[in-house]
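Quick one: structure for this chain?
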Amino acid sequence: MLNLSVVYRSIARMRLRVVPQFMVQTLLACMCLWPAQAQTYPNRYIRLIVGAGLDSSARVIGARIEKVLGQPVIVDARPGAGGAIALQAAAIAQPDGYTLMMGTAANVIQTALGQSHLDLRKDFVPVGNVTTIKYVLVVHPSVPARSLAELIAYAKANPGRLNFVSGGVGTPPHLTMETFRAMTGMDMVHVPYRDANAAMTAVIAGTGQLMFAMAAIAQPQIEVGTVVGLGISGAEPSPFAPQVKPIAEQGLPTFNIVGWNGLFAPKGVTQDIVDKLSTVVQDALQDPEFRNAILKTGYEPAARNNPAEFGAFVQAESVKWGELLPTLNLKP
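Got it. Here's what it folds into:
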């Protein structure tokens, strides 16, 4: 570490000896630069960019980063275009660790569909997955099915009669249903709505007959009987709807689709900053208090993971959707 007292004494001696002025100026320049170099990351506020619906969970991880690293974290909500606006804002930010982003499964899907020129694998650096989302297949009570097998049988006996709703074309719940439809051979009509809440309202009213909904949103409606839950999209039950069996346990053993939201930094950020942020995320995911705080936002906390593991996961997700989407024959 540079000892400033030694520098001052050296300058004084140099002046007494009539050392050339340029050498004095060089040492003074070093003194001016040193304080900036000595400042460790972070030394000012961090901006965390998020798309629609992620404010609450972003504030939980933001609060943990703030607590551990000692600088404010400001959640910058950029809703719209299925998360593409947030993605663009983060991509053009300086890669200095002071702008972070919550990337999602929707971002991967947009890239695979050709709806975004940005790619989480190429334009960002993974820090760590923070939350996951399982979806519940729910039907209106008027649909004569109280099990997954009965739903599939009814749909096959009545092709085109059922309509399923979603919060928009290309959203993870929509593509979860498209995957389910392709695997079961069900002939249904897709009716997209402006968002997931509007889609759930349609199913509750009976104008929509079925959909995949976030478990935390579906369970209250299941409990009061406005919808019937038939299956969970993930390989394991959800803590939000523990009574609903995974679809994988009901005749479709390979069915496993889970949404996720993870922390990324713009491409070019240094590894030491990534490592520092990753340590915060990994420690948080092992903390029961943090995990409970995430659950209160309607998401499930992810398993502990490091940047390499999260990067490999994003790569696998990208390959999966890149191969699957062309086979789905998507219809609006």
